[in-house]
Known about the structure:
Layout: E1 2-4, E2 31-37, H1 44-61, E3 65-72, E4 85-86, H2 87-99, E5 105-107, E6 109-112, E7 116-119, H3 123-133, E8 140-148, E9 156-163, E10 168-182, E11 192-206, E12 210-214, E13 226-234, E14 240-246
Parallel strand pairs: 2-3, 3-4
Antiparallel strand pairs: 1-5, 2-6, 6-7, 8-9, 9-12, 10-11, 10-13, 13-14
Amino acid sequence: MQKILFTVLSLPILFGTCHSQPKASYFEPVAVVELFTSEGCSSCPPADRILSRLTAETQRDHRRIYTLSFHVDYWDRLGWRDPYSSSANSDRQRQYAELMKLQSVYTPQMIVNGRIEFVGSDQSKLNDAIKKALSLNSTASFSKLNVTAKEGQKIAVNYEAKGDIKGCEIHFALVSKHESTAVKRGENGGHQLDHTNVVRQFLTIPAAAQGEATFDLSPVPDGNNWLVIAYIQHTDDLRIIAAAEANP
């Protein structure tokens, strides 16, 4: 475990009115797994592989598990600039660290449903966290999540949400399904690193019953090497209560 102290868009978004349903409304459980990682960290490749295996297993057994790889930028000054890193990703991790009262941010770190954090290479803790997440009913759900992608145009997302979404935000992550890098310097110098569901653009809007959003023209993964993962998260305790994904 490595510790260090230390888009998207200008677009027209249509907001609906935030409707809440009775507390008795429950929906199918989901597990959102956020990995904070870096190509400059020698402890991160095992966690990257765990996330890749989990993603592949989820696709086979159709469990409602959604995986995202956030590449942080605070390792970039130490010999290798991660091409997928961003300060926004680091800020998101720091937000979790502050809420969870952690002494510092670190990589690799996994966070499940915004509530359970652990070293990202710990398979046992990941299994336990997913089991717990999938044992709890959700209080909201996406009834629609569609993407429109035309060559040379921006990727547009339309959604409808139902359930208790008061006090929540909706995140839209445009992710690369697969990425691979030949690292030339730093702690992983000389190694080929593979990644899954790498966050390339990340948009957050206030939760509403329906709406639309549009990603920037760049960066966008080539061909069909992308999908959109959306999830609903409380703003106070960062608890994630719903998620869905849409392919091109």
